[in-house]
């Protein structure tokens, strides 16, 4: 079963654009180094709505094992360590990808 992994970041105030560009480069390196990634997209928020995060990653992995390999890959761990200090808030969710929308308690 494919697994979607979505992550959002809010940067600490004053994070320079060069640092965010370096984060983007690091994420490209992570996605190139890992197997089992079906799609991998990331980028800065477009500012279309108020109250959103600054940056997001949306990835689909072939299965849970592929996601686990990504999360524990040395390149992923390096990016987390290198850029952790600029992250003020982080949120993530994983869900089954490729399925019809499921109702979650709404009429």
From TrEMBL:
Domain of life of the organism encoding this protein: Bacteria
SMART domains documented for this protein: Dabb
Residues in Stress-response A/B barrel domain copies: 3-95
Record's signal peptide: none
InterPro entries: Dabb, Dimeric_a/b-barrel
Protein name: Stress responsive A/B Barrel Domain
């Amino acid at each position: 079963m494919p697994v979607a992994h979505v992550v959002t970041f809010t940067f600490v105030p004053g994070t320079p654009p060069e640092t965010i560009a370096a984060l983007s480069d690091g994420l490209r390196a992570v996605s190139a180094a890992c197997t089992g990634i079906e799609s991998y997209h990331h980028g800065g928020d477009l500012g279309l709505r108020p109250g959103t995060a600054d940056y997001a990653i949306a990835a689909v992995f072939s299965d849970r094992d592929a996601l686990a390999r990504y999360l524990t890959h040395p390149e992923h761990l390096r990016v987390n360590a290198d850029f952790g200090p600029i992250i003020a808030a982080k949120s993530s969710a994983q869900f089954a990808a490729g399925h019809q929308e499921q109702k979650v308690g709404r009429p």
